[in-house]
Structure formats: structure tokens, C-alpha cells
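I am writing to request your help with a piece of structural work I have in hand. The matter concerns a single protein, recorded as an amino acid sequence and a row of C-alpha cells. Could you please explain, in whatever detail you think fit, how the C-alpha cells follow from the sequence? Thank you for your consideration; the sequence and its C-alpha cells are set out here:
>
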Amino acid sequence: MKNHLIRLFLLVLFLTPTINAQVSLDGTHEEWEYALEGTGDVLQIGIPITAGIVSILEKDYEGTKQLALSYGTTMAITYTLKHLIKSKRPEGRNRYDSFPSGHTSSAFSGAAFIQKRYGWKYGWIAYTLASIVGVSRMEGPDGYHDFWDVVGGAVIGIGSSYLYTTKYQKKGVQISFVSADNVYLLSVNLQF
């Protein structure tokens, strides 16, 4: 699993600059703002896709099912709230779909799944990348969201994933042996 996750994270990170290079500048914003926004656009779907691919490569079909349920719930809640709350976008357009941030809820749903299912060893990377998505929604050239939109999206994504996701347990036989003070313990754990 370690190799699958690391390779997919690296692939997403290396694809991001390629996509950002295609963004044209209008002269009113700095190049890093466009790069940040493009990075957020890629990562908001790249993180959940990475989680799904890893669960399939690991033949963790229960995890794939949990990801689908948590991600579907995240998106349903996010877009229902956007429709009900009708919060105006902070960048000045006459759009009333600001709260919560869909990009952020998507990214944090994938990150929370990775952390909860496969542990903090990989979860901290996923949460760091998801945080970049949140920042990109506030600090990109268009500033599509404010702080509370991003926090709301993160809470929805994390909450939905924690609702459905359980810790991954590899199936098979695990044997352990412990000895101390003339006491010996052999443990055999069979998971199926």
C-alpha cells in the first residue's frame, strides 16, 4: 500500500504544474495566484481519485464502498447546502452558491478517508494537500470563497468520511510471539 499511495500522490503533484502552465495571465494577478488556483482545481478531485485507486489496487473493496458512500454523502450535503443557504460569492459576482466550498469538501473527504482507513502515516500528506485546496479557494486570483466557506467544506468532507470509514484490516494470518520471565505467548490471528 505504501508504494501505491506515494506513487499516486507524486503523480498528482507532478501533473499539477503541467496543467497550471496552460493558464493565461491577465496582468492583474501574480503568476503564483494562478498556480495556486490551478493546483486546488487538480487536487480537489485528485485526492479522492487517489484514495479510490489505492483502495482498488489494494483489493480493499470494502474501502472502495466506504469511499463511495462518504464522497457521495459529502457532495450531496455540500450542494444541498449551497442551494438552501444561497450565500453570495465574496469576489463580487452575482452568484449565490458560496457556502460551503465544494472544492474543499471534495478534497477533505478524500483526505479524511485516507487518514481514517490507512492511518496518519499517509493521512498527514492527504490533509496537507487538502489544506492547499482550501487556501486556493480563498487566495487564488478570483477569491471564490471566504474562510467560513472553506471551513464548512472541510467539516462536511471530514464528517462524512468519518461517518462511513473504518480502519483497514488486511485479511490473512498474523502470527506473533512474546517471551518474558519464562513465560511464552504465541498468538495466531486469522482474519477473513
About this structure: The mean pLDDT is 84.
